[in-house]
Structures are given as C-alpha cells and as structure tokens.
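Bug #77: duplicate submission created two jobs. Keeping one. Sequence:
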Amino acid sequence: MAGPHENLETAEHAEHAAHSNRKIALLIAVLALFLAFSETLGKSAQTSAITLNVTSNDLWAFFQAKTIRMTVLSTAAEQMQIEADRTTDADAKARLLKTIDTWKKTATRYNDEPETHEGRKQLSERAKEAEHQRDEALARYHNYEFASAAFQIGIVLASATIITGMLVLAWLSGALGIAGLAFSAFGLWAPHALDFLTHASH
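Kept job's structure:
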C-alpha cells in the first residue's frame, strides 16, 4: 500500500493536472469563440464578394448594351445626314435634320447621363467601384480563412495537450491563436496588408 507521503504527492499531482486542464479548457473555449467570429466574418465577406461580382457583371452588361445602342444611333444619324444633304425638298430635309438631332442627343445621353447614373460613363465608374469593393471583400475573406485555420489547428493542439501532457503544444496553440487574431485584424482593417508584404519581398 502507498504511504501517506505518496498519497499526498499523488493528490498534489492530480490537483496540478486538474488546474492545468482547466487552463487548457479555457484556452480551447477562447479559441472556439474566436473561430466562431472569424467563420461568421468570413462567410459575410464571401457573400459580399459574390454579390458585388454579380453587380459588376450586370453593370458591364448594361454598359455594353448602351454602347451598342449609341453606336447604332450614331451610325444611323450619319447615314441620314448623307440623305439629308442630298435632299432638295426643304420640308423633307427639315424632318430629316430634326430626326438626326434627336438621335444625336439620344446617343449623347447614352454616353453621359449624370441625372440617372445610367450613361456609359457612369456605368463604367459604378462597375469599377463594384469590382474594387469585390476585391476588398475577397481579400477580407482570405484573411478570415487563414484566421479560421489557425484557430482550428490551435484547438486541436490544445486538446492534444490534455491527452499528452506536453505543455509545448499548449504554447503552440496560444501562438496560433495570436496568429489567428492577427489575420482577423488584417481582414477587418487592412485586407491587402499581406499582398503588400508579398509584393515587397519580390
């Protein structure tokens, strides 16, 4: 049988292990909380990127449609101008010139319509802005993906610490948690920061 001294040591080891396990459990809970945040933010960024991509595609399609209409009207006006120049009938010429003027004004409106923001110029600007916002959302999404991966691996290592008793795994888990927080911060405030670092290294 174990003596009182050995029983005391066993109890102390058990208490120490329980205390360590509580700390690891807390670490796992915190990493899981951060993981939930990064997953939610990542899904939101992904949805925004998809929506903005559809928006930019629609705007470019509208831009192309306006370009075709403007080209058709401009060509028709040029053809009618030739006909008007050949016409000797004053009334017919006046009607032709009026139609030409209407078509030219319409073609000009197709190109630039600041009132409705639906001219080619405005559509191009809106499409480029949507593309810029899409790229921002994609960059955020990638950062949140990296953050989620760091948190997930951290949780696995922290869980392994309880089984193996190797505290180095807990330290690695904490380091991954910090890395995950860094990626989350990049996603929130500087989505292209890592792109800049990549370009700077080349």
